[in-house]
């Protein structure tokens, strides 16, 4: 029954390894960029707020496929930005990480901003009254508490990101969804193949959700 | 301990380092609006080094706003505020540096919920003053002992009673070695049996010569610890006097009315 699953011919583990790498690199990138954007959105400088708000509203409302295709067609093929990749494979992978990071950061930013709103204003005032600068107040008092209160929503964002990596197939990154397409074209067992890939994604995302759910309870700030 | 015996001690302590009657905080023609509401109207107030000034008045009279304006947690629309001859900077590094010299204690304590009591007290000196960690910790523990919560150092704020939290907040402000301490209704959020422990810590501070601006409804504290009482109503300073004189013989009708409502029950 599983004759079609020729691991010599179809590099199933290699494809999921690429998926996992896409997810991890994009997760790191989007957590950093999302945090910076959230900082901008609560900044006292109007220009920063405008930029943060504009970024979130534009990127959040643009389909991911459009963003990923743009990184390849726009950034690479038109503007010649290869992200330091020597081969097409490398370049496409990096472009996909860039696109996923840019897209996911908007959602990280909004999750984090809702966390910032849970930190009592008085604590930020007390921090300012001690003589801490805006970035110190954010870094030392507000964000540590904001992060703790949004671990669960961030888990949602990261699970969505893991599944969104399949869009990278649109620019030829050899991740799981691209392999699935190839296998479905070549083999007859459509449902089995679909089932195997669905299972693969569940194996990636379920532990993420469980782990972060546990972390969320551990780090909750007592009030 | 009476006010009379407090004053000489205060001034002797400060007298060696600074001239006797030096003006530390000066508000000159300060105005502020919240929309159509004129919350601070032409406020002129001078606080001398080592002086304890208690601001009282009915709710909505602008006393909290006045207190918060002194370290610019509230901006003002007109007039000037100077601290130690330095005008209050509008924003940025200058403002942060000035705030480091002005301690503030809030009605709702505002301790950092994710840090222990000790970390709360150490944060300012380490991150703002860039002092050495070991020395800061030693001083922080001393301060916590002084306000009577030394044995709570490793707990989180939520594990403490309101009175303990407020005393930690006082220690946190003192760790910055401020020139002046602002108290914005420090006992208003406390259960009655915890008010005294906070007031006691404040009285001790007053005895040691700290310059203090205290917004409060605690008339007993005003009577026993203040050098001067400032009575505010409707955004104006209506009356300024020594506590004895103010409470026993208020001049303005507004103050008489206010005192008759709160003192005769």
Automatic annotation (TrEMBL), chain A:
Pfam families the record matches: BPD_transp_1
GO biological process terms, semicolon-separated: amino acid transport
GO molecular function annotation: transmembrane transporter activity
Alphabetized UniProt keyword annotations: Amino-acid transport, Cell membrane, Membrane, Transmembrane, Transmembrane helix, Transport
Gene3D superfamilies listed in its UniProt record: MetI-like
Subcellular localization(s) per the UniProt record: Cell membrane
Domain ABC transmembrane type-1: 16-212
Membrane topology: Multi-pass membrane protein
Keyword Phosphoprotein included in the entry's annotation: no
SUPFAM superfamilies (alphabetical): MetI-like
Principal location class: membrane
InterPro entries, sorted: AA_ABC_transptr_permease_3TM, ArtM/GltK/GlnP/TcyL/YhdX-like, MetI-like, MetI-like_sf
A single Gene Ontology CC term: ATP-binding cassette (ABC) transporter complex
Alphabetical list of CDD domains matching this protein: TM_PBP2
Transmembrane segments: 12-42, 62-83, 95-116, 190-215
Lineage top rank: taxon: Bacteria
Membership in a protein family: Belongs to the binding-protein-dependent transport system permease family. HisMQ subfamily.
Protein name according to UniProt: Amino acid ABC transporter permease
Species: Streptomyces lonarensis
Taxonomic lineage of the native organism: Bacteria, Bacillati, Actinomycetota, Actinomycetes, Kitasatosporales
């Amino acid at each position: 029954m599983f004759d079609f699953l020729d691991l010599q011919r179809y590099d199933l583990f290699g494809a999921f390894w690429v998926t996992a790498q896409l997810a991890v690199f994009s997760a790191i990138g989007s957590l950093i960029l999302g945090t910076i954007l959230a900082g901008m959105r609560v900044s006292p400088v109007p220009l920063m707020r405008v930029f943060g708000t504009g970024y979130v509203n534009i990127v959040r409302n643009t389909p991911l496929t459009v963003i990923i295709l743009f990184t390849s067609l726009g950034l690479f093929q038109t503007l010649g930005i290869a992200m330091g990749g020597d081969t097409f494979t490398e370049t496409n992978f990096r472009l996909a990480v860039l696109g996923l990071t840019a897209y996911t950061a908007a959602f990280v930013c909004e999750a984090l901003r809702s966390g910032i709103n849970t930190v009592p204003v008085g604590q930020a005032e007390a921090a300012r009254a001690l003589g801490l600068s805006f970035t110190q107040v954010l870094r030392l008092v507000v964000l540590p508490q904001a992060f703790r209160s949004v671990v669960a929503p961030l888990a949602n964002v990261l699970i969505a990101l893991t599944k969104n990596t399949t869009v990278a197939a649109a620019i030829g990154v050899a991740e799981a969804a691209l392999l699935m397409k190839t296998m479905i074209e070549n083999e007859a067992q459509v449902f089995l193949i679909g089932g195997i890939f669905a299972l693969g994604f569940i194996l990636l995302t379920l532990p993420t959700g469980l782990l972060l759910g546990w972390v969320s309870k551990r780090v909750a700030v007592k009030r | 301990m009476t006010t009379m015996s407090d004053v000489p001690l205060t001034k002797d302590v400060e007298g060696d380092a600074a001239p006797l009657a030096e003006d530390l905080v000066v508000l000159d023609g300060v105005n502020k609006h919240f929309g159509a509401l004129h919350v601070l109207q032409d406020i002129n107030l001078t606080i001398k080094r080592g002086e304890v000034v208690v601001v009282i008045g009915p709710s909505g009279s602008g006393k909290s706003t006045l207190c918060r304006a002194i370290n610019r947690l509230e901006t003002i629309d007109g007039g000037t505020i100077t601290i130690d001859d330095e005008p209050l900077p509008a924003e940025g590094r200058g403002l942060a540096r000035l705030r480091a010299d002005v301690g503030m204690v809030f009605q709702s304590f505002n301790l950092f919920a994710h840090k222990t009591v000790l970390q709360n007290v150490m944060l300012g000196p380490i991150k703002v003053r860039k002092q050495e960690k070991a020395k800061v910790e030693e001083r922080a523990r001393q301060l916590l002992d002084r306000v009577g919560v030394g044995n709570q150092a490793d707990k989180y704020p939520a594990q403490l009673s309101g009175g303990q939290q407020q005393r930690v907040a006082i220690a946190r402000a003192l760790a910055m070695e401020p020139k002046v301490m602002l108290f914005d209704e420090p006992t208003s959020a406390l259960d009655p049996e915890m008010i005294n422990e906070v007031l006691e810590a404040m009285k001790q501070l007053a005895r040691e010569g700290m310059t203090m601006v205290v917004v409060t409804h605690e008339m007993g504290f005003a009577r026993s610890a203040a050098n001067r009482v400032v009575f505010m109503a409707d955004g104006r300073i209506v009356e300024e006097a020594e506590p004895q004189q103010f409470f026993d013989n208020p001049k303005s009708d507004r103050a008489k009315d206010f005192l008759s409502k709160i003192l005769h029950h």
